[in-house]
Structures are given as structure tokens and as C-alpha cells.
Amino acid sequence: QQLQQQQAMARPTAQATARPAANAAVAQAWQQQRAQQAVPTQQAQPQAAGAIPSKVGLAGAGQDVYVVSTKGPDGEEVVVRTLIGEYTESGNNHGRKVYKKAAERGSGESVDVYLYYWDNRDGPSFEGWWFGNKLGGTQVWSHNASSALTPPPSGWKIPWDGAVRHTLSVANKAEQMKFEAQNKMKTVGGEVAQVTAAARSALEQAKAAAGIYNSSEGLQTAEKLLQPQLTALAEGMKTLTDAQRGSNPEALRQVQQLRSQLQGLMSSVNVELGKVRASKAKADQSEKMRALEERDLAVLQEVMPEATAKANAAEDAVEKAVITSEMIAAGGDDLDEVKQAVAQTEQAVQEAQKAMGEARIFLNAKQASARRFESETVKAKAVKELGQLQAQLQEAQQKLNPLKNVRQDFVQRTAAQKVMQEVLEKLSPAEVDVDRAEEATVLLKSEGNSKEMMQQAQQAVIKAGDHLNTVLRFIEAKKKTAVGLAKEELNKLEERARGSQSRLTELKNSQKEATERIGLEVLLKDAADKLQTVAETVAKAADAEGPFLMGVEELPLEETLAAVKAVETAATAANTAASIARMFIATKLVEAKRFTPELSKEAQTKLKQFQGELETHTKRLSELKKSTAERKKAVTMREAEHEVKKAEELAAAVAEAAKVLEDDAKLTELSSQEIRAASEATIKAEQEASKHLAETRKFITARQIEAKGREASSEMSSELIKYETRLRTAQNEIAKYKKVSASVDQRLAAKKVIEDATSKVKAVEDKLEKLVELAEAIGAPAPKAEEGEEAKETGPPPAKAAEQAAAEAQASLKAAGRFIDMQMRVQAAASKEVEKLKPRVEELQEKLDQTVASMRERAEKATVEAIAKESEQRVTEAEASVKKLSEAEKPFLPDAPEVPSEKVSETLATLEAAVQAANAAVSGAKTFVGVKKLAARRLSEASKKSAEEQLQTVVTRLEELTKTLAETKKNMAERKLSIVKREVEAKVEEAEKQVEAAETATAALAAVGKPAEQGEGDEKKEDAGAPPPADEMKAACEKAGSAQQEARTVVSASQKLLLQRQRDAKVASGGSSVVEEISKLLERLSGMIAKLDKQKGVLRDQEHKFVAQRLHKDAIEQVEKLENKMSAAADKAAPLTADDATMAAVVFLNNSVDKLKKQAKETSKTPKQLFAELAGGKETLAEAAFVSRLQSMEETGPEDMTLSEAQLKAAFKRLAGGKEDGQVSETQFVDEFRTRYLCAAAVTMTDGLVIKGGKTVRKVDLGEVLDGLDEPAKEEALGLMRVKVKAEKDQKEGFVTLSGNQGTVYLETYSQFSALQKTLEQDLKGVQEAARDTAKYLETKVDELKQVRTGPLSETKTELLKLKPRISKIQVAVQELKKKAAQAEKKLGSVMEEEKKRRQEAADKKAAAALVEDIVKLVTTAEETVSKATPGAEGLIASLGGDQDSPLAAMDSSEKELSAAQESLASLMTKIKEQMEGMKGQPAKGPYAEARNSL
């Protein structure tokens, strides 16, 4: 920055040419300044000829004051910052006033700046106004060629010979202040007028929008119009306050007038805004209450159907429970029927109570929600209606309460009958347990008893006792509440139980004796087993002693140790076994005394025998242990000798390894590696020997401890002490050789120091040789690349590489010297050898100094050449940039063709870039040359002189380039402004076209939004509320929006361009007219933006209107679609809500078809053949033939039952599709014979019966109908029933599983009723989901429109809320239809159950009649037999055989006949009883009950 400042201030001293002496002095001063890089504050030079002495002083009254300022971003430049400030009169020079810069307070500036005029006495180039540090001085900053009497306002060059700095201006302070005050008042007046006009317009618009102050939308619009105006008026007041400061009286008067206007207008706006806000609050509150009432009413209307349904359902459940309870009284004495009625009543009561609870919870929740309604009217209505439902529930609850105890009454009535049966059920099993216990105890007295049998007998007695105790407790409990006969029977049963208890006591005594006998046997057996164990372990210990008894006096040490250890282990085991046996026998002797006397004596005798045998084994074991201890002592001494001897051998090995290291003479002859190897071998041997010594010492110590605990161990201890002494001697030898090994490291270190010092000196010599080579390469020409090859990079420049090498060599040399000095002090052993290297180091230092000096001379020479070359290159680049600028200026020349408007911006940008590039290149070249001058000053005197001579030529070329560039920029400014004017006008015209296109598109959109107005008559009325087609409206909206967006984009771009060009024109000289033109164009653009804003509002309104219409239409379509779905589902459910006769007809038809199927199967006829037979060859089947055939069919089983003619006709009508006189076609007839299945759960169809390895055909979906092709078959591998089917949907065939192994049913038998029911279930589910989705859709849209208070969307929100009750009605209808479907299913089940019951009753009646008939026949036969035998017997009794020839024979014959009759009667009674027993499981009423009564 200092160098640029000096160049800017520098100029030729031609002003001092009046006197040669002065000229010479100035020239000399200028050379000194440039050579010494002087700061701006130099000493004053002698005054030039013609100068008038300055009269410096303060500016007094009437003196002119000028202000120097800048309009651009160059205020921080050193020169500009020096010039900016106020200048006061300070004398005269050459007929013009001289001005001096007034010092600013606290700025600390010490440079004097003068503004003065210089005439043409020194030539025309020096004429004009100057900024300098003194009059005629050599230090100047800026120049203006004007010869005006006062300082010119613009046209100042910085530097003095550079380009004109358009941003710098000089103005008279008084005139400037006056002009600024006028402009300020003009600006303030315009702003206030604009604010006032806008506020008055907004006030009128607000009053019009507010109307009578009752529309929330109008009031909101008025508030939006007025609120910004208050802010704008306040800003206007603030602007007036700011303008009032420092203004003259006239300006103050104008400000006061404007203030009064603003205050009055602000008051009017405030009053109107307050009125609008107050009215808006009231309107909002009213609208809010109306919306809340509508919302609460919609919620109530949505809740009440469900609440009413729940209350009615609960009331129906209570009525059902009351009706069910009446069946208990109708049951009479039939206990089973009464039980069933009680259970049904109880279930009905639970269901009713559950329904009551759900209804009450729901009503309570809805009452709580209703209390939170914000509309008092709706809240009162909700409380009243929900309260009525609560009262209805309370009345039903009062009916239900008495039915809750129905089971308790029934239990109390039947409990008395159960007591006796319960006691017998418990006592009989207990007596059986007593009998079993007795049998088990008797078995114990036999010879084959065992412990297991004893345990079984004891368990049986315990079980029987527990059972009896339980029974007795049960009887005692029953006796407390029993009275009369029941209590007497309980007493008898208690005596039976007490007798069984006495039997158990006797059995326990018998078991005790048997238990003691078994215990004695077990005891003796255990003792014998333990004694046998002792004998075996002692024998094993004796066998382990075998190796010592082989005749070998001394075994090997390892074998001896193993044998001793084996004997010790066996002896320990034998000793343990003996201790266990001894303790066991002693314990059992005590236990045997508690037996009976006979068994106790026997046990003690046997146990004492065992004790004697145990003592014998113990004695033998003691002898064995003694001999083993002696052998172990001998083995221990042998092992100690072996270990000590091995330690001594290892110590000798250490001495052998360290022999080389003891002799210093031999050590010096060896290399470092050999010494290191010998040291490592010695260390290794020493470590191995020390380790073995430690282990041996531990062994000796352990044996010494063992010896102290034995008898006669003194001899062994003394021997062990001797071994310990030998170990200590070996340890001392090893320690001696360990010290020898440690001293080797010190001797090796000394040797390594000598080697390191020598290597460091050698490294310095190598680096010095490299440095000499690099120094010789400095200044040498680089090798030329061969033709066709590029020059190769060879690394850093030779001078830099040489400097780096010199630094490295110097560092290495110093490091080597320091290392040698340090080692001479530290290593005494190597000091002599190291000292011999000192002369070599000194010689190397001297050679290094000579090389560095030579290298510097070569480097300065190369530097001078590089400075000249680089400076020449930079000047060449600057000349090329100026040449490019001339090329870029050609389109702006007078004779050049006119530039198209769309290319103006691009051409101007190219020109600006060229100017900046040329400016930068020239300035950069100047800076670079200045830097190189500074670099040359650091060279030696000869090199410096050569460099300055070469740089002077470059400076001259740069000055010529600077003049050329300044002239080019000056000529370019005016032509540039003309092109800019044409460019901005073209942009504004383009923007106007785009805005017109947007207006056209918006008008077309408004026309599309009102299609109904174009109709006539009735058509116009019908289509008035219909929205326009969606595609047409969407296209119109998109077109208008796109046109508006494009227009806004063009206007914004144009506005941005105009503002940029306006800023450029303000900076440029002579651009005031362009600035005014651009301001007018900007006003036109502002009007366009206002039009676009208005069009945007129209677009938004049309979009809102269209969205509201489409939203309402879509919602109505969804609700109507939902209602149509519900209507279709209701139509489909019509067959399910048929009467009982229709349901019965379904059952009759199924029965008839089953009979026909059975007949067809028996006669091997197909359904088609059977139809042809019934129809008599006709195409349809008549009712008469159908009824006739079924009436003629015989009953093949008791369950078969011929239907009546009316029932058969009902079945045929069902078969004919409900027609009275209908005919059944072959297709209808055959269709009933088809085996069809309905898919109850998704399952896979495969190509074969076997699942494993089968190929999947496809997946069978839920609810799909399948035709059965074969009878179901079992898949053997998995045990699943599968059937071959054909899908009705796509006719694909395959096998499907009927039910899984976990109970999942995949296929169930198809019936029209079940299929219709499942289809209806799916349809109702779809209706429910659609209702839920539609309700959610309405809620979402209403929630989205929650914040919308006015306009089409607000009206649509109200219409959407009105649709909610229709959805609620559909939801209630779905529930009702579900309920009807469930009732239909229940009704069909009831009809089928009744038909099944009827058929079962018929079968029972036949079976019972046949049974009674058989018994009647047998009874008749028996009566005949008795009637034949009794008369003869009665005659014999009466006559005592007097009327017989052979009375005794006659009596014998009569007795036989009577016996035969008696046996026949007994057999008949037995059969009758068997039949009656077989009928016990049959119902209490019905055919079997009548048959039982007959029997």
C-alpha cells in the first residue's frame, strides 16, 4: 500500500522549471524519495517561481469552505482518505485561492493537504488544480486540468497522471448545504404527500368496505386497509421531525403545515380503526356463537341415534331376560328343564346387565360431552334428550334386579337332595382304600416281602387314613346343618367310617413289626457291604506294594516315586473305608437297641462279629503304612541328590560360557556381534541355572518340612542340610559370572561411540561434496529439450537447492562437532580415538565457508536476470490486456453497427470485464515492478545497479500504457450511456407486453368462472350453481397463473436492471439525464406491479370459488354413493329377513333333496337321469310329480320322516325360486345336487391329493365358491381331509384341504343362505369403511376451512356440516341391518333345530313304540305260561293230590312248570330293568318317558 501511495503521489517536477537550480534540486529530491522509499510527509522543497507566500489561518467570516467527498467504495484507499475533508482559505497562488485541509479532531493526522491552482508557465500538462502537501511541491495526490476560478467539482485524476476518479467530488460547503436542504424538503414533501394520499384513499375504501359495520369480512378488509396507514403516517411524522432539525425558518414553516395535515389525518384514521375493530369484535363473536351452535347441533345429531340404539338394545335385553325367567315356573318338576331355564335366565340377565352398563357408560360420557357444549340452547336440548334415555334405562334396571338371584333360589331348593349322595360318593372310595391297605398288609406276612412292598402297604394305609379323615370331616360339617332323617343317615354313615378307622389301626401295628424285620435285614446287609469294601481296599494297598517285592533291591528313581505314590493313595483309601465302616457299625449298635428284644439281640451279635473282622483289617493296614514310609524316605534322598547334581552341572555350564568375557585382551579382538553373542549365551545359561536352583531349593525346603513331622527324622534333616550347602556354593559361582557378563555392555558402548563419530564426519563430507556440485550449477544454462519433447521439471531452482544443501551441511557439521565434544567428556575410554577426528571437522568447516561465498555471487547474478525477465513478462501481459480492451470497445464506436437491445447487457458486461482486466493488469504490473525494485536493493552494489537500469525501461512502457488506458475509459463513458438508455427502454416495453398478456389470461379465467350467465331461460337457472368443468377451470387457472408469474418475473428482472443502470449512471459523469429517464421507467414498472397484484387477487378469488364448488360437489357425490351402497346392501339382505315359512321351506327342501340324493345313489342314477324320470321327458318338472315321488318313498330309518303335502309344496316353491305355479328346469334341479363349498379362510389349491411335492395351482380367496368333483379323501402323510374341487371363478381344478390339524376350517358346505350372509357381511363392512372414510373426508375438509370466515369456502364449510347427519343415518342403518342379519341367522338355526328336534322325536317315538311292543309280547307270553301252570298247581294244593293217580309225580310236574314260569318271569323282569336303565339318559318328557311309564 505504501508503494502504491508513493507512485500515486509521484509526478515530474516541471513546476520548478523557472530556475535551473530549483529544477535540479527538485529532481535530486525526487530521486532520493524513490530510492529511499520516503513516507508522504517529506521536507518542503523551495517554492517555485510565481508562488505567493501562504497565509495559513482559520477560516473567518465570508471565507469559502470546500468539502471533498467520495460517492464510491474507495473511501478506505490511502490517497482518497487523505484528500477527504473540509478545506478552508489559506492564501493565493497564480491568481486563485489556496485552500488547506482542516485537521479533524482526534484523527492524529500529521500530513498537510493543500488545494491550489497552477498556471501553464511550466507547460499545459501542469496547468490546473492540484492536491499536494505544499504549493509547488514534489508530493501531489490528484490533478484536474480545469482552469476555473474555483475548484472544479469533478474530473479529478488519482493518481495525478492516472484515470479520472468519477467518485471524487469537490463542492462549496454553503451551496452544498443549501442544495441539500432544498432537496430534503422536496423529498420530505413528496413522501408526506404520497403517505397522505394513500391514507385518505385507504380511509375511503375502509368506510366503503365496512358498510353498516355488521359484516365480519368487510370489517376485516377495512382493518387491513387502515392498519398499514397508521404505520405509514407515524413514519411520516418521524420524517418531519428529522427534517425539522437544522432547517431554516421557511423550511420550519413548511414542516409545521405538513405536520398539521398528518395529525388531522392520523386522528381520522385512528377513530375509524377503533370503530372498525369494535364492530369486528361484535361480528366475530356473533358469527362464532352461530358456528358453535351449528357445530354442537351436528355433534348432538350424530350422537343421538347411537345413544337411542344402545338404550333400546339394553331395554330389549331386559325384556328377553324377563321372558326367559318365566320358563323356570313352566318347567315344573322336570329338573333338567328347570336347570336349562335357570342357565338361560342367568345368561340373559348377564347380557342385559352388560348392555345396560354399556348404554349407561355411553350416555354418561355423552352427557359429560354435552355439558361442554358452548351453545346453551344445544346444551339444554342434549341434557333433556339424554336424560330421557337415562330414565328409560333406570326403569329397565328395576325390572332386571329381581332376576339376579334366580340361581340362588334354585340351588337352595336342590341342595338338600344332594347331601346324602355326596357323602356316599366320598365314603365308598374311602372304604375301598381301607380294603386295599388290608390286602397289602396281609401280603407282608408272606415270605416274599420286601422294602418296596412295605412302602406300598404304608402308603395304602396313609392314603386310606387321609381319605377317612376327609370323609369324617365332611360328615361333621354336614351334620351341623342337617336335621331329621338326613341327620340319622349321617350318623349311620359316621359309624361305618369309624369302623374302617379301627381296622386301619390294627393294620398299622402289623406293619410296624414287618418294618423292623426288614430294617434289620437292610442294616446287616449295609454293614457287610462296608466291611467288604474295607477288605477290598486293604487288598489293593497290598497289591500296590508289589514292585518292592519283586526282588529288585533298588528300582529306578521314577518307578520308585510312582510305586510309593500308588501305595500311599491305596492306603489312604483303605484308611477312609475303615473309618466309615467303624463309625457305621457303632451307630447301628445304638439303633439296634430300640428293636424288639428278640430282634435287638440278633442284631447286636452280628454287628460285634463285624467289629472283630474290621480290627484285623486295620492292623494289616498299619503294617503296610509303616513299610511304605521307610521306602519313601530312601526315595526322597535319592531325588534330592539327583536335583542338586543337576544344579551343579548347570553352574559349570555358566562358567564355560563366560570364559571368553573374562579376558579383556581377547574381548577387544572380537567384533561387537561376537561379543553380543557370547554375552547372550552366558545370560541364557545363567537364567537356566538360576531357575533350576530355585526349583531345587523349593524341593529341599519342602522335604525338610515333611521330615520335621516324622519320627526319627534327624538323619534325613542333616542330609538335606548338606544338599542345601552345595546349592549355595553353586549359586555363588553363577553370581560371579553374571557380573562379568554385565561389564561387557560398557565396553561395547565405547566401541559404538567411536564408530558413530566416524560415520557422522563421513556424512558431513558427503553433503559437502553435494553442495559443491549444486553451487557450480547456479547460473549455468539449463539443458535444452530435444525437438518434439517438452522440458522436464528438474526439481527446485539450483540456487534454492544449493541454499538448502548448505543449511543441511552446516547443521550436520555442527551436530558432528557437538557429538565429538560431548563424547570426549562422557566416554573416557573412547576419548583418545574420538579426539583424532577434530582436525577433519575444522577442515570441513573452512571448505564449507568458501563454497557458500561462491554460491552467493552466482545466485545474485541469476536473480538480476530473473527480475528483468519477469518484469518484461508482466508488462507484455498488461499490453495484451489493453489491446483486448480496444477490441471490446469496437461495438461502442460511432461507426460501429447498433447493438441489439437483447445483446446490450452481454456487450456491457464484456466491456466492463475488459476494463477491469486491463486496469488490474496495468496496476499489477506497476506493483510487481515496484516490488522487484525493493528486491534489487537487497543485492550487492554491482547487482543492484544492473537491476535498476533494466527496470527503468519497463517503467517507461508502463507509463505509456497508463495514459492509453485513461483516454480509452474517458471516451467510452458517453457512448455507454446511450446504449444503456436504449436497453432499459426495450426492457420496459417487453414487461408491458407480458403484463398485457397476463391481463388477457385473467379476463379469460373470469369468463370461465361464470358459465351459467351465458345460458338462457331454464337452462340458466339449472346450471347457475354448477361449477365449470374441472379441466377447463384448471387449464384457465394454470394459464392465468403462469402468465402472471412470467409477467412478474420479467418486471422484476427489468426493475433490477434499471436500478443497476441507475446506480451506474449516477456514478458516471454526464449521466443525470439517463438517471431521470430511468426514474420515469421505474415508475411505469411500479404501475405494472400494482396491476399484477390486482390480477393476483382476481385469480385467488376465482380459485377459491371453483374449489368451493368442486368441494361441495365431491362431498355430495361421496354421500350419495354411500347411500346407494347402503340401498344395494339392504336389497341384498331382503331374503335374510324373510318370514318363518320361508325359513321352514329351506329346511323342507334340504330334507327332500337329501332323500332324492339317497335314492339316486341307491339306484345308481345321475341327477340328470333322475330329473328326466320325474319330469316324464319334459323340459321342466311339475309340482305334482315332485310331491308324488317324495310321498311314495319309504322310510328307511327311524330318522326318516315323510313330509306332509303342504311341506313338500313349500319345498318345491323354494326350489322354483319362490313362484307359486313355477316350473323347475333341469339346471335348477341339478344345481341342488351339486356339492359346493365356500372358502372360509384363504388356502392353497394344489394339483394332487398329497401335499408334499405337489405343485401349487393358485390361492383360493376368502368367500370364493368351489364345486366338489369327488368325495373328500384322507391325505395319509399328514392325516388331513382333502377334496378335489373346481373354482367357479376361473374353472381351475385342484385339491384343497377341508380343515387344518389345528382346527382351522378352510372349506365349509355351501348354502345360498350362508353365501348370501357372507356376501352381505362383506358389503356391510365396505359400507362401514366407506362411511368412515366419507366422515373423515368431511372432517378433514371442515378442519381445513376452520380459519375461513367469509367467502365461498365459508359457505361450503356450512354445507359440509349439513351432510354429517346423512352419514350418521347410514351408520345407524348398517347397525340395524347387521342386527337383522344376525336375527335371520338365529331364526334359521331355530327352524333347523326345531325340524331336527321334530325328526328326532319321530324317531324316538318309533323306537320307543317298538321297544314297548317287544316287552308287551314277552309279558303276554309270560302271562300265558303262568295261566297254564297255576290252575293245576292250585288243584293239587286244594286236593292234596287226592284226585291224581300219582300225586307225587303230578306235584313234581307242577313244581317244574311253576319253576319254569318263575324263571321266565325273572328273566322278563331283568330285561325290563335293562331297558329302563338304557332309557335313563333320555329326556324326562317325550316318547321315552311314556315308554318308561309303560314299562
Shape: flat
Rg over C-alpha atoms, rounded to the nearest angstrom: 66 Å
Q: Name the beta content range.
A: 5-15%
Please give the largest β-sheet: 7 strands, antiparallel
Query: Which strand order do you get reading across the main beta sheet?
Result: 6-5-4-3-2-1-7
Between the first and last Cα atoms, what is the distance in angstroms? Answer: 140 Å
Determine the number of helices (DSSP H or I, runs of at least 4 residues). Answer: 34
Poorly predicted residue ranges: 3-59, 785-795, 1012-1024
Helix coverage percent = over 70%
User: Mean of residue pLDDT?
Assistant: 76
Q: Give the total of beta strands.
A: 17
What class do helices, strands and sheet pairing give? mainly alpha
Describe the model:
The chain is built from 34 helices and 17 strands. It starts with a helix and ends with a helix. The strands form 4 sheets. Strands 6-5-4-3-2-1-7 form a 7-stranded antiparallel beta sheet. Strands 10, 13, 14, 15, 16 and 17 form a 6-stranded antiparallel beta sheet that branches. Strands 8-9 form a two-stranded antiparallel ribbon. Helix 4 (173-210) packs parallel to helix 6 (249-331) and helix 32 runs antiparallel to helix 33. By secondary structure, the protein is mainly α.
